[in-house]
């Protein structure tokens, strides 16, 4: 994990506010997911407003819908995973 997600709140228009333990925070627009596939569920029973951090540290709405917090972190930083790796001297083997 890049940084630990410590806060998530639903905003209007399919956006969420997220905050990470290193101080990185901001608004993430998720409209590109709305009304598609499993994310159609957001419109039922006000589900989108029920966003929370699940037991694995992911941004979640229920047992079926979650988003990796690392991708949100990188989006807020405006960098790729490879750029983060280089900047933080991290190396992960891939096979």
Task: Provide a compact summary of the structure.
With 95 residues, the protein is of the alpha+beta class.
What can you see in these coordinates?
The chain has 95 residues and is α+β, with helices and mostly antiparallel strands. 17% of the residues lie in helices and 24% in strands. The protein contains two helices and six strands; from the N terminus they run ββββββαα. The strands form two sheets. It has a three-stranded antiparallel β-sheet, covered by helices on one side. A three-stranded antiparallel β-sheet has the order 4-5-6. Strand 4 (52-53) and strand 5 (59-60) form a beta hairpin. The longest helix has 9 residues, at 69-77. The radius of gyration is 14 Å and the shape is elongated. It starts with a strand and ends in an 8-residue tail after the last helix.
Give me the secondary-structure topology.
Elements: E1 5-10, E2 15-20, E3 25-29, E4 52-53, E5 59-60, E6 66-67, H1 69-77, H2 81-87
Antiparallel strand pairs: 1-2, 2-3, 4-5, 5-6
């Amino acid at each position: 994990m890049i940084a630990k997600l410590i806060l998530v709140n639903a905003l209007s228009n399919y956006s969420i506010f997220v905050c990470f333990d290193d101080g990185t925070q901001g608004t993430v627009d998720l409209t590109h997911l709305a009304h598609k596939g499993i994310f159609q569920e957001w419109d039922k029973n006000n589900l989108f407003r029920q966003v929370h951090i699940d037991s694995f540290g992911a941004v979640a709405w229920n047992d079926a819908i979650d988003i990796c917090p690392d991708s949100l972190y990188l989006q807020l930083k405006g960098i790729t995973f490879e750029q983060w790796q280089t900047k933080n001297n991290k190396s992960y083997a891939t096979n």
